[in-house]
Design a protein that fits this description.
The protein has 2 domains: 2-296, 7-stranded beta/alpha barrel (Alpha-Beta Barrel); 320-404, no CATH class. The chain is an alpha/beta fold. The longest helix is centred in the first third of the chain and has 30 residues, at 36-65. α2 packs across α3 (80-89), α9 (227-235) crosses α10 and α12 packs parallel to α16 (380-404). α6 links the parallel β4 (148-149) and β5 (171-175). It starts with a strand and ends with a helix. The protein has helices spanning 29-33, 36-65, 80-89, 91-102, 126-142, 158-166, 178-181, 205-212, 227-235, 261-272, 283-289, 320-336, 342-352, 354-358, 365-374, 380-404, and strands at 2-6, 74-78, 106-108, 148-149, 171-175, 189-192, 199-203, 244-247, 292-296. A 4-stranded parallel β-sheet has the order 3-2-1-8. Strands 4-5-7 form a 3-stranded parallel β-sheet, sandwiched between helices. A two-stranded parallel sheet has the order 6-9. Helices cover 47% and strands 9% of the residues.
Length: 405
């Protein structure tokens, strides 16, 4: 199974120190907090290098494969932020996604609308609210009701799986790391501890990272990675379903076109289907076809994710800056309740986007380099100072709104 994540944050403005956010009128609040111009420039660059050529290629591959006995199938997880930016900056991209869904070979997954950490808001319905918002968005744009859930960055625990089951999902994705599987393989379907119906799909991170991280790494023993070589690896991999799940920017952005990444995917379906026992499937089909082989227990005190080498929540909730920012976001929810101010509520939700806290990571080594690569800031401290400035202004505006209502 092949799936892609598509998400882009709405990036914060970096105002000079002599600008006071409190001076901006309420009607231009979002424009004073968030840099639409910078976000749009990044989005359009990604469209040019990755989104447009990659979606057109995948659509072509699906259409070609439908003429044969084995169709090429895949899944997409599109955050609400990403879809909003499509609508604002490149609506033509949404048309291609509609064409992809219309082939019947593409499944859209559900996630939190704002790609947030709302799953950790104790005693809150924000997590469920954002999932329902996302479902409504997908239904409005594509006439489609997602059946499978993928939480932000594959953050997962028993309670998250239970909440997804209660919302009616048949499947949920997470990272197939040894920390939760032990000796078992990620290439089977499991049952989350405490659930009775929902099935757990595990990402094969080793084979995924062969493409996502190592494809253009000339010092890697597997370089060059060709479609026939990767198909052979998949053929030799035991299990019911080998789940390859990566950022869509892998095609063209993380690995530029001259690396051969587009040609790799162009030839992959034909190479896969040379093996009689290999087929492509959507997450829904995988859930329907395969029985559960065992239970996976991920305690709520020690959740898993697909981020960094640790594959836990330390990418967002490790240092004091991150914990302070998260706690202030969490506390604002109760103050926003019943306020009836859609602008303040939307600003708060945009601030929940996990990228803002991700930029505050102070990890070092290779993991730290990855954080720095994605960050628009010169350091974690600068990221925190900018976020703190915005959330302080939002806290003040919420306080004033509550006092004057």
């Amino acid at each position: 199974m092949l799936c892609f994540e598509l998400h882009q944050p709405l990036r914060l403005r970096q105002w000079p120190s002599n600008y006071r956010l409190s001076d901006f009128p309420a009607e231009s609040l979002l424009e004073s907090y968030f840099d639409y111009e910078f976000t749009g420039a990044i989005f359009r660059r990604a469209c040019s290098k990755s989104y447009f050529p990659a979606t057109k290629l995948l659509l072509e591959l699906i259409q070609e494969s439908k003429k044969r006995s084995k169709p090429f199938k895949l899944g997409f997880s599109l955050s609400g932020n990403f879809i909003e930016q499509c609508e604002r900056f490149e609506p033509r991209l949404l048309d291609i996604f509609r064409d992809l869904v219309g082939t019947g070979c593409v499944e859209l997954l559900a996630e939190t609308y704002y790609h947030s950490l709302a799953c950790f808001f104790e005693g809150s319905k924000e997590f469920e609210n954002q999932i329902k918002m996302h479902q409504s968005l997908i239904d409005r744009l594509f006439g489609y009701r997602p059946n499978t859930f993928q939480n932000t960055e594959m953050i997962y625990s028993n309670v998250i799986a239970k909440r997804a089951e209660q919302l009616g999902f048949s499947g949920i994705f997470t990272e197939g790391t040894e920390r939760i599987l032990g000796w078992r393989s990620p290439n089977f379907v499991y049952r989350p501890r405490g659930c009775t119906r929902i099935k757990l799909l595990m990402r094969n991170y080793q084979l995924t990272d062969d493409i996502g991280f190592r494809f253009s790494l000339r010092t890697w023993s597997g370089w060059p990675l060709t479609a026939d070589k990767f198909a052979r690896w998949l053929s030799d991999t035991p299990g019911d379903s080998v789940n390859i799940f990566m950022d869509f920017e892998t095609l063209g952005e993380h690995h530029w076109e001259p690396t051969g990444i587009f040609e790799f995917f162009r030839h992959l379906p034909l190479e896969l289907f040379r093996y009689p026992h290999l087929n492509c499937a959507t997450p829904r089909e995988t859930i329907q076809r395969h029985e559960v082989v065992g239970e996976v227990d991920v305690p709520d005190s020690n959740p898993v994710s697909w981020a960094d080498l640790e594959r836990d929540t330390s990418a967002w909730l490790l240092n004091k800056m991150q914990l302070d920012s998260f706690e202030r976001l969490r506390r604002l929810e109760s103050r926003l309740e019943d306020l009836g101010n859609p602008t303040l509520l939307k600003a708060w939700r945009y601030l929940q986007t996990s990228d803002h806290i991700y930029y505050m990571s102070t990890k070092t080594g290779g993991t730290g380099e990855v954080h720095s690569y994605f960050s628009p800031y010169s350091s974690a401290n600068v990221a925190y100072a900018n976020f703190e400035r915005v959330i302080s202004d939002l806290e003040q505006r919420v306080g004033i709104a509550r006092h004057t209502r």
